[in-house]
Every structure is written in C-alpha cells, then in structure tokens.
Amino acid sequence: MADTLTATARDCRVAWSETLEALAREDDRIVAVVNDSIGSSKLNAFATAFPERTVNVGIAEQLMVGVGAGLANGGKVPFVSAAGCFLTGRALEQIKADVAYSGYNVKLVGQSSGIAYGELGATHHSIEDLGWLRQLGQITVIVPADSWETEQAVRWAAAHDGPVYLRISRMKVPDLDIPDRRFRPGVAEVVREGDDAAILACGTTVHLARDASVLLAEEGIRARVLNMSSVNPLDTEATLSAARTGHIVTVEEGHVRGGLGGAVAEFTASAHPCRVTRMGFDGFRTTGSAEHLFEEAGLSAQGIAGSVRASLSA
Amino acid sequence: MTDRSNTLATIRDNALWMRRRAFSMVHAAQLGHPGGDFSATDIVATLFFGVLRYDPARPEKADRDRFVMSKGHATGVLYTALCRAGYYSEDWLETYMQPGSKLNGHPNRQYVPGVEANTGPLGHGLPIATGIAIAGQIDGSDHRTFVLTGDGEIQEGSNWEAAMTAGHRKLGNLTVIVDRNRLQQGQGTEETSSLDPLPQKWTAFGWEVIEVDGHDHAQLLEVLGAEPGDRPRAVIANTVKGKGVSFMENQASWHHGVPSDEQFAQAMEELV
Fold first, then answer.
1. Which helix (H) or strand (E) holds B7?
2. Residues in domain Transketolase-like pyrimidine-binding (chain A) (predicted)?
C-alpha cells in the first residue's frame, strides 16, 4: 500500500535516545556503552549531557559487552548500544557468558538492525540476531514496532532487573493505531481481528502486515494481525490461538530461520500443528536499498497478502 | 611476630591447605586443571588472605574489592580460596564437579558466592574487570579490582582491547596478574605464539608493569598490597605450572592431567 511510509513515519532511534536521556536524568545508574557508535546510536545529546556516563571503548565489541557486565557488577544499569550486526555477531560469546549465563543486568541495544544497512551488504545486515539471542534463553528479546513501543521498551528495560536485547531499526515506520496500548514482553498486541488466518509480525513489518490484512478484507478474508513485541518470551497463548485458525504467516525483518518464524514454528509443531509460512530473509542478500530488499523478499502489503492467500488455497 | 609476618604465615598455611585440598578434589572427581591451580595458588592465597577487602557474609557488598578469575578452569584454587575465606563450608568441596553440584568445572556466580563472573572461555575476565573499574571510577569509590589471567590466555585479542581502554582511562584501581608459567594446554607459550617481550607489551598500552616471583609470598604481598597508582598495574608473576609436586612441575600434560591413587599419595607426602 502506498500509505505505509507516509509523513507520519518516524525513526525509532529518536524515541530510543530521547527516552534514555530522560531516564538518565532520573537515575544516575544509567550508563551508555558504545563502540565509537555515539552518532549511529543517536547518543550525541546523551554524551553531551552525561559525559562521565558515556563509556566509549573504541572499536572493540568484545570489550564493550564485557565492560557492560562489569558496570552491572559495579551497580550500574548499562545500555550497550552498537550496530546490531557487530554487537551480536562479534561479541556473541560475551553476550552468552558475561551477560546471559552470568545473569548480569545489561541492556544490549542493536541499532540499525535487520536489513537497514541495505547497500552496505551482508556483513552489515543483522538478520541472524533474533535466532542467536533467542536461543540463549536468559535474555528478553524485544523488537519494537514503532516509536511508541520503542519508548515503552526502553522504559521497561531500564526498570527490569535482567538481561535485555532491544532491537532498534533504522527504517522509519508509522505509529500503529491501536487503542489502549500497554507494552508487556511476552504479550502480543492485537492490531486487527480475524479468524481465517493470522499474521504474526514484529518490528518494522507490523504495519505492512496490518496493510496486508486491509487488502485481504476487501476480498472477504479476515486475517488477524498480531504485533509480537518480544520474540523471547514468545506469547504462546496468542500463538496457540493463532494456530487454531489453521494458517499462520510470520513476518520479520530477519532471517527466516531461528527468529520469530522459528519460534512460532517450534511452538506450534508440538502445541497445535498448523500451516506456518515464514517470511523474512533467507540468507545473505545482494546489495540494494533496504526498501529494495524488502520488496525482493515479498515484505510488502501485497507480498504478505499473497502468502496468506497461498496458505489458504494450499 | 609482626602483623606482616603473621599475614605471611597465614598466606603460607592457606596456600598449603589449598594445594592439598584442590588436589584431593581433582583426585576424587578425576577431572580438573591441577597444573594451573598450583601455578596460581600463591597468587590467589596472597590476594584473599593478605590484600582483598571483602565480607563473606555480604558477598555483594558494593564497596568490596573484586577478584575476577579469568582463567576460569583453575577452579581448584578458586573454590578452595573462597571456602577458606568463609564464603561456604568445606563440605561444598566434596561435591566438586558431581552431578548437580554448585561447583561446576568453571565458576558460576549465580551458585557460588564470591564468584564475580562466569568465566571459562578465555579472555573474558579483563574486559569485565575493566567495566568494574570504570564503575568505581564513575562513583569515586575506593574499591579495587584484581583479575588473574593465564599467560596463554592473553593470546586472546579481547585482553588487548581491554588493555588499550584501561590504559587510556588511567584505571589505577585495576590490577591484572598474569600467571606466567610459560606453558599453555599443549606446549610452551613461546613455541605456540610467543608472548615475550611481555612487560614491554603492557608498558606500551600505558600500564605500570612489575615482575615478581609468583611463588614468593613476601614479594606478592608487597606488590599486590601496594597503594593504587595513576595507571593500571600489570603484575607478571613468574610461576611454575604444577608448583609443589615434583612430578607435575613444568609439565604441560598436567594442564588437565589427573592423578592416580599412587600419584595422589606421593603428592600428599610432598605437600607439607
């Protein structure tokens, strides 16, 4: 649909950095840890306001995560913020041992995640992160869908005592129009009702799933749309209910293996087998803008609607 | 006796107890890393019984000094030190590496009081210790952080990421001790990927460097107990892998070798 990226679309990174700055004014335990990523994390204002609480370790991701664990040991609430591809790929063992297994209160913030760095190539795409971190189990993995949810997720992470991964995209997204919203990890938001099929989406793809459901409604197909705010924990209640429609389509700005689609397929395989179509990126992509790569992978209202139709007619 | 000679006597007694107890744990479990336990014993005993400020009844106390065991495989020496320091009773040691034990082959802070980080993969301790030291710097706290690494371990690049930042930030509250026994798992460090000239490497990263005999309690107490300076401190402790048992000394095979009943009996005769 043409209206998916209208003037109302906003950069979630702004919500992230403004919220962190506001929280840091109230809580002096909050520290930002970066790998020469102040600008790309939109933390210039934070660094100016709190220079002593901005720890820039240089281009050293293993150290960055280890320092996060050490700061937590010392009573701080560190937000470790870097491009998602380097944060989760380069420092995966530190995330496993120093944060998840050690149980330290570290907030990992993957910036420009997914396919946002489109033209820069597969080294800079972060499509494996959801699968890698979801499997560690001890980390709450949150994929905000818009600016409102980003702010809520940052606030929740700061108040929560335990490891968190926040996945922030660079792609602008419109705010979802859902009444009486309340952010809770492990609880999906119902974006649209419907019982013929269910589209389970997260992050930047939720608004596309919503638009797909609108298209399908014009054909008389009622497709439920859920915003899966967290991939770990998975909202198993909502997923079970979705499985009872018989047709689930998962959509994410991530790898089709291991992330949201993987979690839903694993769960439904034993809880309530149904047809699960996983949409996302299947391995390394060629160069192209993020918008181009989305289109190529069928991550559009038309593409998602097509997957729902295909499932229903299979 | 003076306070200092009392302290040295306590360190000596505890080091002997730790070696005997750690080796009996390894003998019982038929698992462990006794060569590295013994090279590190005098360092760890000096820290716990002569240098560190801690309260075993309050292991999370904010202003405690921290000891980060980066060579996480040396749990024989770590667990015996924490036991002797009063964090838990001796019967815990009987469970070493048994099914369901809190005393895993590598330490877990969520089960074992006094453990600061779940180490095991190498090159993790110094980055974590750097973070603790930065927290202390931000707070203006006087707590100190000591981290013990193996020498082969510093082939891991993450150590040098930390060395660079700790030097840059002039973390005087941070001390690394390198257990320089010159042997890694398979062979000598200098045959594998040489570390020498080691002092110059730390100096180049902005650290104060001191070399000591890592089995000389008086030297260790003087250097580790010294007031913090204006830079992080690297103590290169020259040690002997398997120190204290004649047939184990300087043998790479005792990295994770385990004793037969006869070898255990002989070791107990020598460790007196």
1. helix B3-29
2. 10-175
| Rounded Cα distance, A192 and A214, in Å | 9
The average pLDDT across A85-97 equals: 98
Could you report the per-residue pLDDT of B56-87, keeping only the tens digit for each? 999 999 999 999 999 999 999 999 999 999 99
Taking CB atoms and an 8 Å limit, are A74 and B136 in contact across chains?
Answer: yes
Nearest residue to A203 (alpha-carbon basis) of A251, A238, A164: A251
* CATH code where residue A57 lies: 3.40.50.970
Residue with tokens 């100016």: A48
Query: Which among B73, B108, B118 is the top mutation candidate for probing chain A, defined by the most A β-carbons within 10 Å of its own β-carbon?
Result: B118
Inspect the interface and report whether the beta carbons of B158 and A71 lie closer than 8 Å. no
Asked if residue A41 and residue A104 are part of one domain, the reply reads: yes
Out of A174, A199, A224, a domain closes at A174
Cβ neighbours of A62 in B, within 8 Å: 123, 127, 157-158, 161
CATH number at B27 reads 3.40.50.970
pLDDT at B114 over 70: yes
Torsions phi, psi for B88 (to 5 deg): -160, 170
Residue of B nearest to A100 (CA): B118
What's this model's pTM, rounded to 2 decimal places? Answer: 0.96
A71–B132 C-beta distance less than 8 A: yes
User: CB atoms < 10 A from the CB of B28, how many?
Assistant: 17
- Closest CA–CA distance from residue B138 to any residue of chain A (Å): 7
Interface of A with B (CB under 8 A): 31, 52-53, 55, 57-58, 60, 62-63, 65-76, 78, 93-94, 97-98, 101-103
- A19 with A120, same domain: the answer is yes
Give DSSP secondary structure letters for A149-190. HHHHHHHHHHHSSS-EEEE--SS-BPPP--TT----TT--EE
What count of CB pairs under 8 Å joins A to B? 101
Q: Residue B238 is part of which domain span?
A: 3-270
**Same domain, residue pair A170 and A203:** no
Which of A174, A202, A237 terminates a domain? The answer is A174
A154 and A79 belong to one structural domain: yes
Among candidates B120, B129, B157 on the partner chain, residue whose Cβ is nearest the Cβ of A70: B129
Residue of B nearest to A101 (CA): B118
> Does any domain span residue A133?
yes
Q: How many domains does chain A have?
A: 2
Say yes or no to pLDDT of A1 above 50.
Answer: no
Cβ-defined contact of B110 to A103 (cutoff 8 Å): yes
Which residues in chain A are contacts of B162 at CB distance < 8 A? Answer: 63, 66-67
pLDDT of A2 above 50: no
Q: C-alpha B74: how far from its chain's center? A: 8
Range of A235's domain?
189-313
What lies within 8 Å, CB to CB, of A130 at 6+ separation is A141, A143, A167, A231, A252, A254, A255, A258, A259, A260
How many CB atoms are located within 10 Å of the residue B55 CB?
A: 12
pLDDT band at A307 (very low <50, low <70, confident <90, very high): very high
Model confidence at B168: pLDDT above 90: yes
B134 contact A CB<8A: yes
